[in-house]
Specification:
With 385 residues, the protein is of the alpha+beta class. The chain contains eleven helices and 19 strands. The chain is globular. Its main location: plastid.
Length: 385
Amino acid sequence: MAPTACLRLPFLPARARSATATATPFSPPRRLSLKCSATNGDNSNPNYISISPGVESVDVNGLRRPPAPVSTPTVPGARDPNWLPRPLTSADAMEADGKGLKVAYQGCAGAYSEAAAKKAYPNCETVPCEHFDTAFQAVQNWVADRAVLPLENSLGGSIHRNYDLLLRHSLHIVGEVRLAVRHCLLANPGVKIENLKSAMSHPQALAQCEHTLTGLGIEHREAVDDTAGAAKIVAEHMLQDTGAIASSLAAKLYGLDVLAENIQDDKDNVTRFMLLAREPIIPRTDKPFKTSIVFSLEEGPGQLFKALAVFALREINLTKIESRPHKERPLRDCSSLLKNFDYLFYVDLEASMADPKTQNALGNLKEFATFLRVLGSYPVDVNEP
């Protein structure tokens, strides 16, 4: 099977998207309708006609009667614009199985990110991208509808590059998917394990298989951009002394043999991926939701404690907290001679933005945070990895 070419930055069309006008809620004009007298509660005169809702009533002889008191209907949208439902977007209307979706991911065909995309949207069309940033741009420039990118691994920890890219781009997290990673040792047909002197793969995959590779006598490591890319290089160059650490799917795509399966040092190896889109989804409260935010604080004792307290006091559980240096303000001015890093805090809340207590907590945090942004409110992946 011919390998799929990765999407490169120069070919991304820079299509400008017109700014979406914000709809202003308004009350529709009241219409006058003719109704029979029975609808007005007056059955004594069958010739009586009422105008509803009206100012006066008339009978067939043209005589006017006193106007009946009419209560003005209550229009909640006129009082509170937030009461009105938000119009559905194309993101809301997509089929659950991903039919009609183009999903971008980093890596070559056969990458674990592609498997995550297929798990999230079984019938989607996957779009391989050369770099993480390319996948973000593919969605932002309307080349793809979604992007599936790794956020953290149970063994290797967080993928910091994607945390930084979340702030650089204006995409929204609309879901998550957990994928069990099962590393395989691949090689060209006819090559045995004892022939291998080197292993090639993504740096995290190499780290996750460190002890197993040493036990197999494979001492040299060679890092590349992604696992499937390593399989592609081994196959294209017909390497005889180098194996690739990748998925069994990559072995099928590039015509390699699987010399060993599940070679990761820890068998419980799970990667959590985020699903990104141009538009946010409508949060709900009838199913488990997660909300991801990022904020920064002023320098001072107890500031982080104060920030976390706004959630603890409302019994909102935090499932993750990650700090990253603020790239736009790497050093903050302090009263002391030492200049400390200015940090951004990424936090995952076990809560939905549709819940008033979540909104109240963020409103409280906004009162003293120097920066606050909601990255997304999305369903929790409750399926087995």
